[in-house]
Amino acid sequence: MAERKQSNEERKIYGVYLQSILTMKVMIPITQVGKNMKQNLEKIISKKTEGKCIAEGFIRPNSVKVIRYSSGTINNENIEFQTVFECMICHPVEGMLVECITKTITKAGVHAEVVDETGNVPITVFIARDHHFTDRKFAEIKENTKIIVSIIGVRFELNDPYICVIGKYVNRKTEHERSDKKRGGDDTKPKLTIGGDEFLEEYEDE
Fold this sequence. Notes:
Oligomer: single chain
Keywords: DNA-directed RNA polymerase, Transcription
Helix content: 10-25%
Radius of gyration: 22 Å
Number of strands: 13
Shape: elongated
Number of domains: 2
Structural class: mainly beta
CATH superfamily of the largest domain: Nucleic acid-binding proteins
Protein name: S1 motif domain-containing protein
Largest sheet: 6 strands, antiparallel
Distance between the termini: 23 Å
């Protein structure tokens, strides 16, 4: 049997976070400068960034870790430090596939959330019904079920508690069947990656 190659319709699904390295200037009162500088800097950076959106995207809570920091310079009654830290950032882009859980279904469309392994919601998703009038599977979507969405628009502002996206419902089973027809019925199951772990996508026999 010929080796099955993934088509553009069988794109992989990845975790929504990427490990990133950022820099930040941190001011600390002289009275708070002590032995535990790294921990103090991490607390300050975490309070400013975690669980909200910054320019680079949504920062996952409990992910900030200071890598290094400069010697402090006196600035009035404060000490100024230049810090380099790593964190997990969520910044979805157009065309990215995400797995989300449906929350409410209205006449306008479907509202869903991307929920990470610790219960945080970095992304809220809206899927317009107007874009899926001819999709029978879209009409069968129920609340509190997992679906796959392709992102077509992204919006967030500084300090937002999550990123808002507009998405398009992706029926993986339909895409699989369409691809099989193009390849003459090859039934090899494609591998997907979600959050770094691989699994075989399961389809029910019709």
